[in-house]
Amino acid sequence: MLELVALTKRYGDVVALDGLSMTVAPGRIHGFVGRNGAGKTTTMRIALGLARPDAGEVRWKDRPVTAADRRGFGYMPEERGLYPKMTALDQIVYFARLSGMGPAEASTAAQAILESIGIGERSGEPVEQLSLGNQQRCQLAAALVTSPELLVLDEPFSGLDPVGVDALSGVLQTQVDQGTAVVYSSHQLELVERLSDEVTIIDQGRVVASGEVPTVRSSRGADRLKVELADGGTGWADGLTGAKVVGRDGNEVVLELLPGGDDQDVLDAARHAGRVRSFRREAPTLTELFREVVSS
Amino acid sequence: MSTLQVVRLVAGRELRERIRSKAFRISCGVSLAFILAVAILPGVLSDDGPTTYDVGVFGEGAEQLGDRLPVVAGQLDDDLAIDVRRLGDAAEAERLVESGDLDAAVGDNRIVVDEELGGRLEFVVQEANRQVVAEATLSGAGVAPDVAGRVLTPQPLEVQALDPESDEDSAKEGLVFFGTILLYGQLLGFGYWVASGVVEEKASRVVEILLAKARPGQLLAGKVIGIGLLGLVQLVAFVVIGLLTAQLTGSVDLPPETVSVAVQVVLWFVLGFALYSCLFAVGGAMASRVEELQSTTTPLTFLAVASLFAAMNTGGDPTGRIAEIATFIPFSAPMVLPIRIAAGEVGLGTVVVAVAIVLASIVAAMMLAARVYAGGALHLRGQLALRKALRAG
Questions:
Q1: Could you tell me which chain B residue has the CA closest to the CA of A98?
Q2: Nearest C-alpha of chain B: how many angstroms from A57?
Q3: What is the CATH number of domain A2-218?
Q4: Which ipTM did the prediction report?
Q5: Would you state the pLDDT for residue B176?
Q6: Is the pLDDT reported for residue A134 higher than 90?
Q7: Which domains does chain B have, with CATH numbers?
Q8: What does the pLDDT read at residue A288?
Q9: Could B208 and A95 be called an inter-chain contact, meaning their C-beta atoms sit closer than 8 Å?
Q10: Angstrom distance (rounded) from CA B8 to CA B155
C-alpha cells in the first residue's frame, strides 16, 4: 500500500500541494483527477522521488519509502520519453537494469513484456522508427518490465485512440488482477469512472473527494432526477419550484431536488407536459461531481 | 544497487550508443584522415629529390660557361643541379627552349627562355656568367689563375649560431604542436558530447524515467565517465596510429621524447576532460533543446579557444609571460603544461602546483555540475538561468 501523508510543496509563491493525503491499495485501480495545475504531476513526482516535499511523507508497506522501493515502481511520466536512436529492446533492458535487475533477468523480462504488449517483432528497431502507437506501448513496457508492485501513470490515456484506450485498460486490469497497486491521472472522467475502483479528486493541492467510486459519487451533492419525455422538449421543467435544472440533452432533463422538493411533484409535472419515457433517480456522475466540487 | 553499479550501467550505455552512432564514426574517420595526413604528407612533400634544370650553352665562351654552371648551382644548394647541353647555334637554342626540352639557353650575351626565368636559375646563370667573364678579364690582365680563383670564389663565411636549432628540436616542436591540437580537439569535441547528451535526454523527456531510477549525480557521473572513456580510447588510438605510421613510413623524424610527450597528452586529457566535461554538463543542463546549447556553452568554448591560443604562444615561447600565467589557470593548464614540460622549461614544483589547481577546479566543477544538473534536469522548457538551476538543485 502506498500512503501519501500530508504532502506540502511550494514553488516560490505558488502552493502546489497543501497537505495532500491519499492511499493506493494493492489490487486496486486508483483514478487521480483534478484540473490542470491542481497538483497531480507534483504528487506523482514526489511519490517517485523526483521532487522533494516541503513537508509530509511517502510511505510504502507501512514504512517510509526507500530508494530501492522506488526503483521497483513502474512509472510513466506525462511527458513521454525514450531514447530515439536506441532499439526498443535495448532500451527496456537498460531501464530494467537501472531498476536493479541482473543482465539475464532484465533481458528475459524485457523480451517477455515487449511480446505481451505486441511489439515483440519490432523490438530490434530504433524507437524513432516505430509508429506513435508502438512508441506508447514501448513506454508502457518501460513501466511494466520490473513487474512492479506499484504502477504510477501520469495521463496514460492522453493521445490514445479508442482501440488504444481499450488495450491499455486491459493491461491495467491484468496488472491489478496480479495484485499491483495502480494509480493514474486522467482528464477523461467517464473513463475514470468506468475503469477505477477508487478515485481521488484534488483541487489547488488539496483532496476534495476520495474513496470508492460509488461512495464518492453519492457522498457529494444531492441525487439527480433524470426525466425523459417522448417528445415536448425540456421547457416544462423550467417552472418547477422544488427542483432546478442542471442539464439538458434532447428531451431529457437533469434536475437537482432543492431542500423540501418532492420527486413525485416532478413526476406529476412531467406527466402533465407529455408522455414520460423514463424517470430515474441517480447519484451524480463523476463528471458532474467534478464540475461541482472544483467550481465551488 | 550501489552507486558504482549505476554509474557503470550509465557509462556502459553511453559507450555502446556513441560507438554505434553515425556521428562518432564520421568524426573518427575525419580525425584519422587528418592524423594520417600529418604523419605521411611531410615525407611525401619534402622527399621530392634534387631539382634539375636543363640549360643549353652556345656561342662564344660556351665551353667555360658550361663547365661553370653546375659548380655554381652546387655551391648555392645541394639539391640544385644543372644538366648542361652544348648547342650548335642560337637557332637550335631557341627551338629547344620553345619546345620545352630546355629550361633556358645561354650565349651571345643573352639568356633565352620560353616565358620567364625562375629566381634561383637566373641567379645561377648570371653568377656563372659573371665568374667566367671576370676570369677571362683577369686572365687577360695577366692575373694568375689561382689568384683569380681566390678573388672570384673566396672561402664562404662560416655561420656560428649561438643557440643552434637542431633538427630534433624542430621535430619535437612539431610533435608537441600536433599533440596540443589533438588534445584541444578531443577536449572540446567530447566535452560538447556530454552537453548534447545531457540536453538530448531532456529534449526526449527520457530523463524523467531515469531520475525515477537513479540519482542525478550517478547519471551525470556515468555520462561523463562513459563519454570520457571513449574519448580517451580514441585519443590513445589516434596517438598510436599516428606515431606508428610516422615511424613505419619514416616521413617524420620522431625525437627521443616522443613517448613521454604522447603519455603527457593522454594524461592531461584525463584531467582536462574531467574539468571541461563537468562544465559542459552545466551548459547542457541549462538548455532544454539542442539549439540552445550554442548559447549556454559559448563561455566554455571561448575559454577553450583562448587556452589553445595560450598553448600556441607557449609553443613559440615556453618561458614567456603568457606561458607562466596560463600554467596556473585550470582551463589552459592541460594544454600549456605538456608543451612546457616537453621543452624542459618547468620545474617539478610548478607542475605539482598546477596539477593541484586543476584537481581542485575539477572538484568544484563536479559539485557545480551535480547541483545544476539536479536542478535543471526536469526543467524541460526554455533556457534556465544558472542561479535558478542552483537554487532548484
A1: B213
A2: 17
A3: 3.40.50.300
A4: 0.82
A5: 79
A6: no
A7: 3-42+167-392 (no CATH), 51-152 (3.40.190.10)
A8: 81
A9: no
A10: 73
